Amino acid sequence: EIVLTQSPGTLSLSPGERATLSCRASQSVDNNNLAWLQQKPGQAPRLLIHGASSRATGIPDRFSGSGSGTDFTFTISRLEPEDFAVYYCHQYGRSPRTFGQGTKVETK
Amino acid sequence: EVHLVESGGGLVQPGGSLRLSCAASGFTFSAYSINWVRQAPGKGLEWVSYISSNGDTKHYADSVKGRFTISRDNAQNSLYLQMNSLRAEDTAVYYCVRGSCGDCWAIDYWGQGTLVTVSS
Predict the structure, then answer these.
(1) Does B63 reach chain A within 8 Å, measured CB to CB?
(2) Is the pLDDT of residue A71 over 90?
(3) What contacts A60, CB < 8 A, 6 or more positions away?
(4) Distance between B104 CA and the closest CA of chain A, angstroms
(5) Could you say which DSSP state residue B1 is in?
(6) How far apart are alpha carbons A28 and A48 in whole angstroms?
């Protein structure tokens, strides 16, 4: 199975700052079939990015994704108060589909 | 608006069975694949099972293979997960998650989840 390793585990930032999250895969992710999800406490995850770099419907353009193969990056250009949450990467190119362990973006 | 509502969770003893349901609305249910994804308390996400739009193709995680069965009723806009021989490690919130097309492995919309607790 493809193991996804996210870094850092926790990111402490202030509103208005830039957040950069990493997701590294143990094998190449087929067709860049990688997504980024946001989860707030007590809520279900929400899809932000699919296909490594395409924003999902209704997602603001401060969220972006890039990368290919085994190295992927997720960026929030300017953190809004509602962006403090846990972010997961997810590969759906090969079975079993797998998720990273998550990066928590917390208020500094 | 896409809406997925899970039900059927609860407390069950180890070795017991439970059937989860997911009621869908706001889209043409029969045109989309659906998944179950779970999250143990305080932990990350784990994909559990997948079913294609017409129900012909089913996939399972190794951790549940032979114990869980996914099915759907397109006439009733409903998805099911029959869980047998439950173990403590199956304790989790179970989410119903829509695929982005009929045979897609990509996912988009999530339900709010239903909690399954396996304990004596």
Answers:
(1) no
(2) yes
(3) none
(4) 9
(5) -
(6) 21
